[in-house]
Specification:
Layout: H1 2-41, H2 50-65, H3 68-74, H4 83-108, H5 113-135, H6 148-176
Helix pairs in contact: 1-4, 1-6, 4-6, 5-6
Length: about 180
């Protein structure tokens, strides 16, 4: 009986974390998207779609062989090179990052919400700058095509995502008396 109660409590805890991650993720994605769109209005080129390009490069053939690409086209869904697909991918990846944060990353990072958000931001930025963008031919942090200001703007928009994610999650934890 005690074990069953513990499992119910744990499931409730996970559901509450997923809810917090969803709310914090929506806020963080919205702020990040506004910051990236603002760069387009300047106009200033920032790192857009590096992960999507890498996944297409790495997974294009297996996806085609599995019939996913054909099914996708038959259903009339947007192609990967369309803005709708790219922004949708951006939102899905942002939500995945938010859920990873609330489900496990947060508990493993030291300090208050600001420190946790900053550490998460730096870690993901380094993965993007050192691995993803060089693999798609953009060089370190996109330096092949981006100006220093473009790299800085992208870094700031990226950091805004992770800090706002951590801050909103912290506000929700306090409001819900959780953790």
């Amino acid at each position: 009986m005690v074990k069953m109660m513990s499992e119910v409590t744990r499931a409730g805890s996970v559901n509450l974390r997923l809810l917090r991650g969803g709310i914090a993720g929506v806020v963080a994605i919205a702020l990040n998207s506004i910051a990236l769109k603002a760069a387009d209005w300047v106009p200033l080129s920032t790192a857009h779609g590096g992960l999507l390009r890498l996944l297409v490069q790495l997974g294009g053939i297996p996806i085609a062989l599995a019939g996913v690409a054909d099914t996708w086209r038959r259903l009339g869904l947007p192609a990967p090179d369309t803005q709708l697909f790219q922004w949708s991918f951006h939102a899905v990846i942002g939500m995945a990052m938010a859920q990873l944060y609330v489900l496990g990353v947060k508990a493993r990072l030291p300090g208050p919400a600001t420190a946790k958000g900053a550490i998460y931001a730096i870690t993901v930025w380094l993965i993007n700058a050192v691995i993803v963008l060089p693999l798609v031919g953009e060089g370190f942090a996109g330096s092949r095509d981006l100006s220093c200001f473009g790299i800085a703007w992208f870094g700031a928009a990226h950091t805004l995502f992770f800090l706002s994610l951590a801050w909103v999650d912290e506000v929700l934890c306090v409001a819900l008396r959780f953790e």
